[in-house]
Amino acid sequence: MGSSLNIAIVGGGAAGFFAAISAKEHHPNAQVTIYEKSNKVLAKVKVSGGGRCNVTHACFDNKELSKFYPRGTNQLRKAFEQFNAQSTIDWFKKRGVALETLSDNCIFPKSNSSQTIIDCFEFEAKRLGVRVQQQTPINDIRFEKGRFVLKSLEQEIFADRVIYTTGGQPKVDSLRWVEGFGHTLVSPVPSLFTFNMPSEPIRSLMGIVVEKTTVRIEQTKLEASGPLLITHWGMSGPAILKLSAFGARILADKSYDFAVLVNWLHTKKEDVVRQELERVKETNADKKISNYNPFGLSSRLWEYLIEKSAIVSDARWKEVNGKIFNKLVNTLLNDRYEVKGKTTFKEEFVTAGGIALDGVDFKTMESRHQPGLFFAGEVLDVDGVTGGFNFQAAWTTGWIAGKVPSRASGTVMK
Length: 414
Known about the structure:
The structure is a single chain. The longest helix is centred in the N-terminal third of the chain and has 15 residues, at 114-128. The radius of gyration is 25 Å and the shape is elongated. The protein has a seven-stranded antiparallel β-sheet. Mean pLDDT is 94; it is low at 408-414. The two termini are 13 Å apart. The protein folds into three domains: 6-189 and 347-409, FAD/NAD(P)-binding domain; 192-266 and 337-344, Beta Barrel (Elongation Factor Tu (Ef-tu), domain 3), CATH 2.40.30; 273-334, Helicase, Ruva Protein, domain 3. It contains twelve helices and 22 strands. By secondary structure, the protein is α+β, with helices and mostly antiparallel strands. The chain has helices at 14-26, 43-51, 62-66, 73-79, 85-94, 114-128, 238-246, 248-253, 270-283, 299-308, 322-333, 389-403, and strands at 6-10, 31-35, 56-57, 99-101, 106-109, 131-133, 140-144, 147-152, 155-159, 161-164, 185-191, 193-196, 209-217, 223-230, 234-236, 257-263, 335-340, 342-344, 350-355, 360-361, 366-367, 373-375.
């Protein structure tokens, strides 16, 4: 590529910086400029993971990795053949950023600070000669006379190639320009949120974590397993966040007014639990049920559940019979809670929606309608569950978008 190639990156977030660095590495003579509407770049990277930045997840099977994405599963599986979780680890290692894998397979910088990732990106961008223009909102993009025209405030910016990476949008109004190129927009709805339960007494147990649960959305097929955190507003934790991601549109249609059913014993079935409880009754008949918890639940939660099962606090195991026995089994396996609303998970706003995937070639991230126009990151109708998956999608799509020149040029980088 000659020095005349002018690449405009719209959006100075995770996907934008990764795309810019990739573009400059693959096209050293090109002029690469990031246009960011605010006075801050990489803002979401800064706050992610509680300020620690969960850069990816230790899942090294591309097919399995793609299953963590409620939207974009099939497309990302192909994209991961070019750049995946191992690629991310190698990329940071090459640039001197040490990473560590935690027990839940989430991967963070060893420094435990997102600033390490920000410093790495800003250093690489500066080293390669990527230009960064802040406070430059791009309000419209057109293609005229063989080049792109980007409208920003009172000026027009010209580019041979555009990589659009503005992240998830709460409204599609800022994306209307893509319809002029033939793209379809999917209305955005929130993903990755916690459940508000204002009328449920379980909120008094805030801070309790149950490591293995299974949670279902009543009257749907939605189900997720994993840790559950009781909060002062309701429920959170990986199981809840996974449900919110896979059920994003269904729960939006319900106006976030629904019920969840919690199996506090993870995947245990009714017949097994009944047998276990019968054995407890035989071997611990005279013990107080409140003092003997056979399932390893926290004492506060166990006391709450037996009270919810209409069992008095000083009852003995031998007294748990008939309807009370059935009620206890049902509470352990199908504990019902009313959800009335949602809360954003930490400061991480994730959306389901954006640019429809059928209009993008995931081998190149180029528009199928307009050569030279590329997309990367959450501006696409792609989103993952919590655990480093959304950043992995940003790295993958950004790297690919920066790598391959427009098909209009007739060449493809190897």
